[in-house]
């Protein structure tokens, strides 16, 4: 948002505050008649005797759980290393269900452009199709970012409630060590620690904010990963079937 827009918002807010201040000052400065005081007193007594019930908040039951769900996330992944910062942004849909798991999305990679991917599991095999500049390749390994928020020697502590997409869940603080295998395709010999705050609803992650400090080859590295759910719903067996069929057909 540019500076002029912020100035416009500030001006409108200032005018509204000034009008509220004038209105409250005008009301408070007017003399009140004895009859009006009696009316106010009677009204106050009546309201005290019959208070209005507090508003209730409806509990929304999510149409998903840890064993069957589909969530659409926005994703921002940043790595700062040797004075250079690289950011990968995009979105990803992740589905988990009895028939099999699937994912698809789009990522903007610096100096490379926009890459799209589709992935599906079958038995113990994961098929992933990645397309960049019209060229597509299919392999049998998980897409690179699925394990980046997983660590080793992880401790998890509930910190209270969180709210995402109108659902109430549990906010967890996770602390652990980065898994060197998860980053081996990017940086060899990486080691470090991370802290993440994860909001889960019915066992499904709806947001994650991870910050890590690591070292590789004697150089310090800072890593951040932010994932935020923009939509969550039930698992789609039809989506799984179509993605698996398309990816295997392009092998």
Identify the notable features of this structure and list them briefly:
251 residues; alpha+beta; 11-stranded antiparallel beta sheet
Explain this structure to me?
The chain has 251 residues and is an alpha+beta fold. The protein folds into two domains: 3-49, no CATH class; 69-249. The protein has helices at 3-29, 34-49, 180-183, 237-249, and strands at residues 69-81, 84-96, 102-109, 113-122, 125-132, 135-139, 151-164, 167-178, 191-201, 204-216, 219-233. It has an eleven-stranded antiparallel β-sheet with strand order 6-5-4-3-2-1-11-10-9-8-7. Strand 2 and strand 3 (102-109) form a beta hairpin. The longest helix is centred in the N-terminal third of the chain and has 27 residues, at 3-29. The chain starts with a helix and ends with a helix. Mean pLDDT is 76; it is low at 1-49.
Write the layout of secondary structure elements.
Layout: H1 3-29, H2 34-49, E1 69-81, E2 84-96, E3 102-109, E4 113-122, E5 125-132, E6 135-139, E7 151-164, E8 167-178, H3 180-183, E9 191-201, E10 204-216, E11 219-233, H4 237-249
Antiparallel strand pairs: 1-2, 1-11, 2-3, 3-4, 4-5, 5-6, 7-8, 8-9, 9-10, 10-11
